[in-house]
Amino acid sequence: MWATTRSRHLTLGALWAIAVLVVLPLHSRGQPQRDFYSSVSNLLDLVKHEQEVRLMLLAYAERLSALQSNILSFVETRQPYHDLRTPSEVSDYMKHPVHAFHLMKRMIVDLGAIESQIHELHASDPLHNITAMRANRLLPWEEDFNGVAVSIARLQDTYLLDMDNLVNGHLTITSRPRNRTVPGRIPLTARDCFFMGQVAVHNGYYDRSVEWVESAIDKVVDEKPPSVPTEDLTKYLDLLIKKHDDVLDSMGKAGQHWQTYGVPVRERNKTPLQFQTKLFEEKLTFAQETQNYKRLCRGEQLRTPKMDSQLRCRYYYGRHGFLRLQPVKIEEANLKPYIITFHDIIGDRDINDLLAYATPRLFRSTHYGEHGMETSLIRTSSTAWLGDQDAAVATRLNRFVESLLGLGTQYLKGEAEFYQLANYGVGGQYIAHHDFLADIYADPNRKLDDFERSTGDRIATLMFYLSDVEEGGATVFPHLGVRLTPKKGNAAFWWNLNSDGEGEQLTKHGGCPVLYGSKWIANKWFRSNSNLFRLPCSRNRSQPLAPLV
Fold it and tell me: Which class does domain 306-534 fall in?
């Protein structure tokens, strides 16, 4: 990929083409079931594999060095006949039997030793092992490199990271009540910033791509030699500005797959950002919903004190009084629809068992898309599924959850799905979505399996937080202004359907990008048909389901 930007004389067309070329996935290799950037657990595996490759290459380099030394010794060692000038002198020299012995020894023993070293070097060529490791997804593909670059662009956009510090390797959050800098050890080069700009524009971040290339221009001034020609950067920046302004003029400020400053690039500093908060509306514009999502991710307060005045914290004894001797703590986040956090309801033993089960089974998360289950930037995490009989921890959790909520938990009875265990890595997120599947059921082209056809929709969600997250990773509801901070041992719960079985539009929620740290969760989705007579009653069928009592 880097070779595409080395030329000192790129045409404008070639410059723009780079943005497309650098991020094309390697379709010939097939769809990977695992990637590295979407999971810190996988990144930790990659550290181990990097060490294996390092030792492999080091051993190869030592053998290569020994071979080079022997070759140089062989070719630089002068023989007496090298100084003889005429064929007759050479002929007289070779008539001596000891001289003949030395020549034979040189060509059999000395050269033979070099031949053996060359054969051994070919046999231990690390390229074969590296190729096999990459084919088996033990080493990253280009999708991973591009993916982590997109993640950084997403983090910069969501959390409004300070660009000067970011290019020097530091994460500085300036948009929150509590400013914080997470220091890094390795800065980015101008070439790195250039690449980030290319990836950003290819993924629709027209505004952020301009900032990245501007940072590359600032960075290259201090590089000797420059990692990328300055003239290439300035030409590319001119192209970006023109592209940004064209998109703004023809398509508007933002859409599902693009965003701009809202004004031409040259006027961006003249117009301060204006935020108008809209909440409790089922239909928000995409721009408004995205704005609420990002502001909540940054920790901004969108709700008024009046909205929160009826919320309370209390002890809860379970649906059947099972927890009477050890009630759990509930914190209400919203009443209609009902959203709560259970505090300290899953212990270290169960968490460790869940992580031990999930870690070796992680694969790239999917979501419901136009063509069935798909991977995309909508959801960037890695997932494993835990069946009811797969591990003892599943049995323990099912028994506890049924006592806690009064809802059935068994997959074979059609009451609930398996536990979905997910790990979010660098910039890992799940953009705003509904958990209920009404659109899936309404699609005549969708092929449903027996479980989907017979169990009904997802009536409720229980999300266990299995780790603390240093920065980012909150669960946010952009239509409600609700933000749930992940805390190890807690769990979030909400009803996805109203009393009449229709999807509650206000429960649209998303997982914020993980800025720093690793986020582990376990989801349990409950199905409606088998849980019909276990639900709390509501007087109005069009109202949200009643709170837990």
Answer: mainly beta
Burial degree of 18 (CB within 10 A; 0-12, 13-18, 19+): buried
DSSP reduced 3-state for 420: strand
Count the alpha carbons within 13 Å of 282 in the hemisphere toward its beta carbon. Answer: 5
Nearest to 206 by CA among 247, 236, 156, 266: 247
- Give the integer Cα–Cα distance in Å for 80 and 524: 84
Question: According to the model, what pLDDT value does residue 21 have?
Answer: 39
Q: Which residues contact 311 (CB under 8 A, 6 or more apart)?
A: 332, 333, 334, 335
In whole angstroms, give the CA distance from residue 118 to residue 68: 10
Q: Say how far apart CA 38 and CA 364 lie, in whole Å.
A: 7
Judge whether 141-270 and 306-534 match in fold. Answer: no
Give 486-503 pLDDT, tens digit per residue.
Answer: 999 999 999 999 988 899
d(C-alpha 25, C-alpha 472), whole Å: 28
Q: Are 151 and 159 in contact (CB under 8 A)?
A: no
* Rounded distance between C-alpha atoms, residue 135 and residue 1, angstroms: 19
Name the amino acid, one letter, at 388: D
- Contact between residue 436 and residue 512 where contact means Cβ atoms under 8 Å apart: no
451 three-class SS: helix
The CA distance from 87 to 85, in Å, is 7
The set of long-range contacts for 153-156, using a CB threshold of 8 Å and a minimum separation of 24, is 153/196, 153/199, 153/200, 153/203, 153/205, 153/208, 153/209, 153/212, 154/205, 154/427, 154/429, 154/513, 155/427, 155/472, 155/513, 155/515, 156/208, 156/211
Structural domain boundaries in the chain: 49-135, 141-270, 306-534
Per the CB < 8 A criterion, the answer to whether 213 and 194 are in contact is: yes
Architecture of domain 141-270: Alpha Horseshoe (1.25)
Handedness of CA 316, 317, 318, 323 (dihedral sign): positive
**430-433 vs 419-424, strand pairing mode:** unpaired
Separation CA 12–CA 241 (nearest Å) = 13
* Six-digit token string for 527: 């199905």
- Look up residue 512 and give its DSSP letter: P
CA–CA–CA angle 106, 107, 112 (5° rounding)? 100
Distance CA 186, CA 183 (A): 10
Low-confidence ranges of the chain (pLDDT < 50): 1-32, 369, 376
From the number of C-beta atoms within 10 Å of its C-beta (0-12, 13-18, 19+), residue 320 rates as exposed
- What lies within 8 Å, CB to CB, of 304 at 6+ separation is none
Tell me which amino acid residue 261 is.
Y
Of 427, 402, 521, give the one whose Cα is nearest residue 156. Answer: 427
How far apart, in whole angstroms, are the C-alpha atoms of residue 96 and residue 93? 6
Angle (CA) 17-7-213 rounded to 5° is: 60
